[in-house]
Amino acid sequence: MSDLKTQFDEAVELVRTAKGNFKPSQNFQLEMYALFKQATEGDVHGKKPGFTDFVGKAKYGAWEKLKGKSQEEAMKIYIEKVNEIKAKY
Questions:
Q1: By CB atoms within 10 Å of each CB, which of 5, 16, 36, 56 scores lowest?
Q2: Distance CA 59, CA 49 (A)
Q3: How many helices (H) and strands (E) does the chain have?
Q4: Which domains can be identified in the chain, with CATH numbers?
């Protein structure tokens, strides 16, 4: 797991410091957010955001879709997606 965690941490840092021409769609951003949350915190928890919190609801919903996926699997998928983007840009 530690090797996977190291790769995940490197991918997260790459995303945080990324510059360039890549302009991710909102859906892609939500997917990456949800994978990060699932990988770092596990299944969705906390109160679902209210009706007027559109961004919060979208984030919560994206994370909720990953319920039951292991943290390790979420890390693997996150790393794969970052590597796909790196290969294109």
A1: 16
A2: 9
A3: 4, 0
A4: 2-18+26-88 (1.20.80.10)
User: What is the per-residue pLDDT for 3?
Assistant: 96
CB–CB of 16/32 below 8 Å? no
State whether residue 15 is helix, strand or coil.
helix
Report the candidate in 65, 74, 66, 80 with the shortest Cα–Cα distance to residue 1: 74
Structure tokens at 6: 């190291």
Whole-model pTM: value is: 0.91
Identify the CA nearest to 15 among candidates 74, 89, 67.
Answer: 89
Residue 61: Cβ within 10 Å count: 14
Confidence class for position 1, pLDDT limits 50, 70, 90: low
Separation of CA 22 from chain center: 16
